[in-house]
Give the backbone structure.
Amino acid sequence: MPFIFRLGTVFLVFFCFGFGVFKMAFGLLGQKIKKIPCVIYIAWFCAASWAQAFLGLLLEDPLEKLFFELIFLTLHAVVLGLLLKKFCHLPFIHTLTAAVLGNFIVYTVYNVVNTTAFAYSPVFDGKYLYVLTTIYIPYLSAPLAAILASYILGKSSFYRYFSHLFVHRSRAALTFIVSFALMCVWTVLDFFYPDSTPDAGYAVFFFSLIVAALFWVQFLAMYVESQDKIKAQEETILQQQAHMELLEELRQEIRAFRHDFTNLFSGLALQAQEGDLAGIQEFMRETSNYFDTKLGNEIQQMDCLKNIRPYALRSLITTKLAATRKKHIQLVLETPCPMNETQMIGTEDLLRALGILLDNAIESSSEKDGVVRVILLQEEKELYLAIANNYDAAPDLSALTRKGYTTKGSGHGAGLSSYRRILSGYHGCVSRTYIKDDMFVQELHIPVV
């Protein structure tokens, strides 16, 4: 065969396999394929596969070859996971697991078709026809299977269930470990059973392995989602109770103000009869201040809550508002314009991040006259969050980046670590911490999608 044909065949098989893995990983994430990361990964895959083939010829010990192939498998998955993280704006453990599972699915399809073709394909007189049946068809089956599987997964909304496995670190770690073991199964089997002869049962078994793996992921994810929904409903009930308590307090304030207002106007009537103009002006000034003190802040907070359109976020702040009231801490909420739900960060991660900042501000505010200020400013290109609190002892800003640092005593300090871990999964989110006017301020800038 001509050298150009052989070289073209090698590039074609590398391209097919690389594209198949890339498409499958995107399908697991529920994302539409993107040209730039696709070109980058296929170029990387071709170059790395050439290097892998060349370096593999230098190894003779089977055990060394096993570890060598496992290292390259892992490297391919890491590179793809990093590309997916950058272009899909998802946590790395999420994208890495998708890359690992995509590699396993595509390689399983290719290996079964390839092994079956070698075992059952008749010996043709023409070399090109033999190459077609034993090389081209198996490798072309990889991207075709990836496209078909991605379509099916998209129609079944598999990505929604898949993403639920990465809400908590323990679930994400378990999902990744199982997926990584599946990806390595072919290499390990080839090491222990190098001379195994495939048959129809062989193909059925490994295709069943793919179905079982995806079924396990979806079943586990559906179970996790149902548990999360139950927990979310319980939290929603508690948040609604807090909201009702807030409304009840406001109603009591209005009743008290109505009673006081009646008494105040009785005094005003006497001053009017006596023609005391200065007294009437003083009364109006005091009444205005009284109104602002009693009801003005309450009404302003209700208006600000109304501007927070994401219901889950509004419920969270309402709950924290009720908590500050019980601790006699003044919480000042400012949302000058309505918020939308187009932030790059996921709703659950936004709630966790904001909850950590609010809890820290409430717990570290001054014990005597605690004040917490919350600003939510929706701008055209970003959502700006700022949470500030006063304090009894100024925190050490240089120590805030240390894991476990806290000013609240033993048993605390994990919140800021979790907060930084949440933000690390989103490219473009910027946090800032500083002290200004005797207030400890934590800012967060979240890009708008």
Q: What stands out?
A: Residues 18 and 45 are 6 Å apart (CA to CA). The first strand starts at residue 330 and ends at 334. The beta strands are 330-334, 371-378, 382-389, 430-436, 439-447.
